[in-house]
Design goal:
Order of helices and strands: HEEHEEEEEHEEEEEH
Number of domains: 1
Strand order of the largest sheet: 3-6-7-8-9-10
CATH class: Alpha Beta
Distance between the termini: 42 Å
Number of strands: 12
CATH topology: tt1808, chain A
Helix content: 25-40%
Length: about 190
């Protein structure tokens, strides 16, 4: 059975009422996005990035790394679930509820055939408009990362090294992309 067609835009509240059926439901600017369960390689990439970010952020206390499922409500018509994301600390601690998140420092989507269009267009434009400091699109098959910042018209394509420094007073996270992709694909 398909999703009901609505004359009005979808809202975050409407998405929260949808069934827990193993699919990921998001709404961006009133448009419902539905994706199937991810592949094993997708989840390997998500987990690997999450762990790298978590270790770095715990050492430097500039934010908190999390991964979906999540309810990041940007407005009443936009509820997203980035695969991996970093939020600012709230009074020196991690947020305790989704509503407590003041914004995103980083959003990461790992491409899947069913999500590529939305990740590269709809969600990317929304994250840029929201002022998310960096948006990474990880393409495991092509072994590259597209890095977007709010003002970018085109992505920075990274194949060798990914450097992320949310606070110039703190040493950056440096990821060797060949090593990362080898680990994800089981070639390391």
């Amino acid at each position: 059975m398909g999703m009901p067609q609505l004359q009005q835009p979808w809202t975050a509240a409407m998405v929260r009422e949808l069934p827990a059926d193993g699919k990921r439901y998001e709404v961006v600017s009133g448009e419902l996005l539905v994706t199937p369960a991810p592949t094993f390689d997708h989840q390997e990439a998500v987990g690997n990035l999450f762990l790298r970010l978590r270790v770095h952020l715990r050492a430097h206390l500039v934010g908190h790394a999390a991964m979906s499922p999540a309810d990041i409500e940007l407005d009443t018509h936009t509820l997203v679930q980035p695969d991996v994301f970093v939020v600012p600390l709230v009074q020196g601690r991690r947020p305790r509820t989704w509503a407590e998140i003041p914004g995103l420092l980083l959003a990461v989507e790992v491409l899947s055939p069913s999500t590529a269009r939305a990740d590269r267009t709809i969600k990317r434009r929304r994250f840029q408009a929201e002022g998310v400091h960096e948006y990474w699109i990880v393409d495991v098959e092509a072994r590259l990362v597209e890095r977007w910042r709010p003002e970018d018209l085109r992505p920075e394509i990274l194949t060798e090294t990914l450097v992320w420094q949310p606070d110039p007073a703190v040493e950056p996270l440096v990821v060797s992309l060949p090593d990362f992709f080898n680990e994800v694909l089981g070639a390391a």
